[in-house]
Design goal:
alpha/beta
Length: 239
């Protein structure tokens, strides 16, 4: 079984789109766990409508760890709430994961919006670099697939890390098993953080975070002022 774990905070619109995309997959041997950090909107109603298991959350690292505690699957698939899965991607990535004998994997990303600027930026400043660095410096943003026994051996995500806890876990996991970027399909992600916080500011933050991780270690202070669940809701989805 595959355990899909999603940390949430006021994500009723995005979570609905993600769950719809999961429901449409051909692969059906999965469970969905929503780790909620106290949403005030209809996030939990959406999760219940799609028969998700629900547990308490917090910041992303805590929420992911809480979800993993109740997971029944041998594989854990951590997804941000604003991700959308392309058609029939689950079967493709699981076959590739098994064929390549991976223990942990990340993905290339494409924006879910139709913005050519967003697509170009994701391609030039994330996809090309992470593919080039695949053998020496693992990355796994927005989506991370890992064997549960490896995850447990590492004690999960480091809850003291304030930014890029997913990259940190992936780099620790690489020491215990084979890592790779899954190339059979990209995942669709929101560019809302870039649009809300500014493209230059957001990319600079991630770039400096990368440097901090390489030269000083994981980011455990609030120097990058990471925010979770700070987006304005533009519309309401009907359940």
């Amino acid at each position: 079984m595959l355990s899909i774990i999603i940390p949430t905070l006021n994500e009723e619109n995005n979570l609905l789109e993600l769950l719809k995309s999961i429901e449409k997959q051909n692969f059906k041997d999965y469970e969905i766990i929503v780790a909620d950090a106290g949403s005030k909107d209809k996030t939990l109603e959406v999760a219940k409508k799609y028969n998700c298991k629900i547990t308490s959350g917090g910041l992303p690292a805590k929420g992911k760890n809480q979800g993993a505690k109740i997971a029944q699957g041998d594989l854990l698939f951590f997804l941000d709430a604003d991700v959308v899965l392309p058609k029939n991607v689950l079967g493709k990535i699981l076959r590739e994961f098994t064929k390549r004998k991976l223990k942990v994997a990340g993905f290339c990303l494409l924006p879910s919006s139709k913005s050519k600027l967003s697509k170009s930026i994701f391609t030039l400043f994330y996809n090309i670099p992470v593919l080039a660095l695949e053998k020496i410096l693992p990355h796994a943003a927005m989506g991370l697939l890992i064997e549960k026994n490896i995850f447990n051996e590492l004690n999960g995500f480091d809850k003291t890390i304030t930014l890029a806890e997913d990259h940190d876990l992936t780099r620790r996991a690489q020491k215990l098993g084979k890592y790779g970027i899954l190339k059979s399909s990209k995942i669709l992600v929101s560019d809302r953080r870039f649009r809300k916080d500014g493209w230059a500011k957001t990319y600079s933050k991630y770039l400096f975070c990368e440097g901090h991780m390489i030269f000083l270690g994981p980011v455990k202070s609030d120097i990058f002022e990471y925010k979770f669940g700070h987006y304005l809701k533009n519309k309401k989805n009907k359940l």
